[in-house]
Amino acid sequence: MTDEPRLAAVTGWPIAHSRSPLVHGHWLRRYRIRGHYVPIALAPEAFVEGLLAMPKLGFRGTNVTIPHKEAALALATEVTEEARAIGAANTITFREDGTIHADNTDGYGFLANLRDAAPAWDAAAGPALVLGAGGASRAIVHALQSAGAPEVWIANRTAARAEAVAEHFGARIRVLDWETAEAAAADAATIVNTTSLGMKPGEPMPVALDRLSAGALVTDVVYGAEPTAFVAEARRRGLMAVDGLGMLLHQAVPGFERWFGVRPEVDAELRAAALA
Ligand code: ATR
């Protein structure tokens, strides 16, 4: 049994665009681990059957992405505090005793990326402004709250989605109108773009950065070979600015360690591999 190559996966629908196989594949080669990390496309109606079959096929675990993160949480028999609080799972581990362990490492990845790239940043320094109210926003709101942000302000084009996030996380959250977010940014210590703005060339920035205070940190979940206009502009202005690729890389660390037995490094080589 123990001689078998170790197996892990990422499952979503669709899954072809996922960079996770590049990330884990790089680490498997770097640490000379006999294992495979494969993308598995599972349609929503096939998800439960597919996930439950994975341990029988020899998989030690799987990352889970859109649209399966809530369904994965519901199937788990053991759930971390993070996954429960966020309401979604992205890292599933099949234990030898048959338990299915669910974690959500998106918030961990967000914080680890900031601590790595902007060590001077302190969540407790002031309010955090989160732009957007999708799945990434929830994980980031929870991370900012647990890192000690005194207040989280959330603004979204569709106000009802921001209200839903605020309701989910309760205390120390304020919903701002999308139109007033730009003015509010001046009083925020941390500004996070979780909207998809910046993915396509020519899209406007989520908010202008001309009123930000000098100590503010700007970060973006959108990533690519070059920093987004939002992050590039923040850098030009001398602000602390962190691009989103590091969040993707850091969120992969806990799963790799659980499935393959080595705590992997996030470094420049990994960044290059993920963008290949
Ligand atoms: P994810 O789960 O990855 O965060 P999502 O649920 O598709 O992704 O959310 C995308 C976010 O980008 C949403 O907050 C969306 O705003 P709406 O809720 O109003 O749709 C935001 N977004 C996308 N395009 C936008 C645009 N042109 N202007 C402002 N916000 C935009």
List of distinct ligands in this structure: 2'-monophosphoadenosine-5'-diphosphate
Global structural class: alpha/beta
Low-pLDDT parts are none
Distance between the termini: 34 Å
List the helices and strands and how they pair.
Blueprint: E1 6-12, H1 20-30, E2 35-41, H2 47-53, E3 59-64, H3 69-75, E4 78-79, H4 81-86, E5 91-94, E6 100-103, H5 106-117, E7 128-131, H6 135-146, E8 152-155, H7 159-169, E9 173-176, H8 181-184, E10 190-193, E11 217-220, H9 229-236, E12 240-242, H10 245-251, H11 253-260, H12 268-275
Bound molecules: 2'-monophosphoadenosine-5'-diphosphate (ATR).
2'-monophosphoadenosine-5'-diphosphate binds at residues 132-137, 156-158, 161, 194-197.
Characterization of the model:
The two termini are 34 Å apart. Helix 1 crosses helix 12 (268-275) and helix 5 crosses helix 6. The chain is globular. The chain is 37% helix and 19% strand. The chain is built from 12 helices and 12 strands. By secondary structure, the chain is an alpha/beta fold. It has a 6-stranded mixed β-sheet with strand order 2-1-3-5-6-4, sandwiched between helices. A 6-stranded parallel β-sheet has the order 9-8-7-10-11-12, sandwiched between helices. The protein binds 2'-monophosphoadenosine-5'-diphosphate. 2'-monophosphoadenosine-5'-diphosphate (ATR) binds at residues 132-137, 156-158, 161, 194-197.
